[in-house]
Amino acid sequence: MHRLSGKFCVITGAARGIGKAIAKAFIDEGASVLLTDKDAETLAQAGQELGSPTLVLDVEKEADWDHLAELHPTADVVVNNAGITGFEAGLAPHDPENASLEDWRAVHRINLDGTFMGCRYAIRAMKEKGAGSIINISSRSGMVGIPGAAAYASSKAAIRNHSKSVALYCAQLGLNIRCNSIHPAAIMTPMWEPMLGEGEQREAAIAAMVKDTPMQRFGEAEEVAAIAVLLASDEARYITGTEMTIDGGILAGSAAAPGS
Ligand SMILES: NC(=O)c1ccc[n+]([C@@H]2O[C@H](COP(=O)([O-])OP(=O)(O)OC[C@H]3O[C@@H](n4cnc5c(N)ncnc54)[C@H](O)[C@@H]3O)[C@@H](O)[C@H]2O)c1
Asked: How far apart, in Å, are the Cα atoms of 155 and each of 65, 89, 212?
């Protein structure tokens, strides 16, 4: 039996990577999915590939969320997945001493403000039915400090906390609207391209990345999508305000642990 049949789901940043994998998994489970992204061209390709409707939506633009609410005033599942590292246009300093205010704000505008507006849309779109599932894609970087990507880590930590505020707010109102966050570690998606390079350098970069991961590999977008399916489904009806890590075991221990 399909686990998401009859559910209308909105996914942000769904043109590629984790968002697209979640869209595919939701469709496979019988959901009807609206793919959204700010990259119109890649989004159109993904929509065609998955046979789903698309809407260009830039998560940092309030007018785009208003437009979505006009088109789709109700929804059962909203996945706030769109996010940036800040390194998309190339490497730049993102440490606490040298990051520029503009770079700091740009990361927060998309990752945090976008998730805030996505949750706000979701609550309003689910309120009438009194039920729904909001899934926010945070990161392992939202649980620990990342010296070289401080804005990313800060924005993802704030998403973790905001997810709990949303969960409690909805419960206080007596609504069956759940809100949870997913915290992936390194998942092989196009997001990594600017940081991995090519050829031998790429192999070395990948090896260095997974060196301290207990399972010794990158995760796959489909593995994150499997958690999103669970949280979107009615099987998760008593799960709210929680965080699910998917990290090959990284957060289970510490590099400083004795006897490692
Ligand atoms: N890949 C990883 O290792 C990893 C780990 C932890 C968390 N995450 C998080 O998972 C989410 C998806 O990451 P991914 O690896 O698939 O990245 P990706 O770069 O492959 O895909 C991100 C998508 O979001 C879209 N996007 C970017 N800015 C947007 C905006 N303002 N409005 C709408 N869409 C926008 C992009 O066009 C792209 O299609 C992000 O929030 C990311 O921070 C990824």
From this structure: 20, 19, 24
For residue 260, pLDDT beyond 60: no
82 C-alpha to ligand 1 centroid (Å): 5
Q: Determine the distance separating the centroid of ligand 1 and the alpha carbon of 176, expressed in angstroms.
A: 28
Among 219, 209, 63, 44, which Cα is nearest to 137's? Answer: 219
pLDDT digits (tens, 9 = 90+) for 195-221: 888 888 999 999 999 999 999 999 999
Give yes or no for residue 110 CB within 6 A of ligand 1.
Answer: yes
Three-state secondary-structure class, residue 83: coil
* DSSP state at residue 219: B
* 3-state SS assignment for residue 178: strand
Q: Tell me which amino acid residue 10 is.
A: V
- Which residues, 6+ apart, have CB-to-CB distance to 247 below 8 Å? 140, 183, 184, 185, 213, 219
Q: Which atom of ligand 1 is nearest to the CA of 15?
A: 39
Answer yes or no: is pLDDT of 95 > 80: yes
Cα separation, 233 vs 29, in Å, equals 9
| Nearest 10 degrees: Cα torsion 100, 57, 183, 208 | -60
- Cβ(16) – ligand 1 distance below 6 Å: yes
Sheet containing strand 176-184, edge to edge, reads: 54-56, 32-37, 8-11, 77-80, 131-137, 176-184, 243-246
